[in-house]
Structures are given as C-alpha cells and as structure tokens.
TrEMBL record:
Ranges where the EfeO-type cupredoxin-like domain occurs: 3-86
UniProt cross-references to InterPro entries, sorted A to Z: Cupredoxin (IPR008972), EfeO_Cupredoxin (IPR028096)
Transmembrane residue ranges: none
Protein's recorded name: Cupredoxin-like domain-containing protein
Gene3D superfamilies: Cupredoxins - blue copper proteins
Amino acid sequence: MSDVQKVNVNVAGGYEPNVINLKQGVPAEITFTRTNAQGCLDVVHSNDLDFEETLPIDEPKTVTIATDKPGEFDFSCGMDMFHGTINIK
C-alpha cells in the first residue's frame, strides 16, 4: 500500500472539490483535470504552496504537495477568479 494521499480535482467552471483535506506528514498528489475550455482555468497556481501548472483540456496534471506544515493554503486559476483551499492537519 502506497503512503501517498491522492486527490482528483475536476476543473470545469471552478474546482470540484474546492476544499481538499490532507493529513500532515503524508506526501500528497493532487491531479487536476480540466474539462471545460473556460479561459482562466487553463492555469492553476498556489503562492502558498509554490506551484503553477498549465492545464490542457482533458489532460490530467499532477502536483505534488509538501505536507510538512499544517495550515490552510489557497490555490486559484490564473486570474485569481476561481479559488480552492488545501487544509493540512
């Protein structure tokens, strides 16, 4: 059994789910899949967690999240119009 938390996020008019709960100290992978051509959702980024990914249509992109620090961390689209939260406890 793998000790990695895996979460799939559907990107279509926003993020589903838009709240992700992770356990502190266990490596995590979040896979974003964009299924809608809405413009600003072609990028997902988080200044808090230091990642930025381009999201092509129907092509999963996986981001590895460091879970060493607890807290609430934001992620959003390229224009900061659509938001989500990653909670690490």
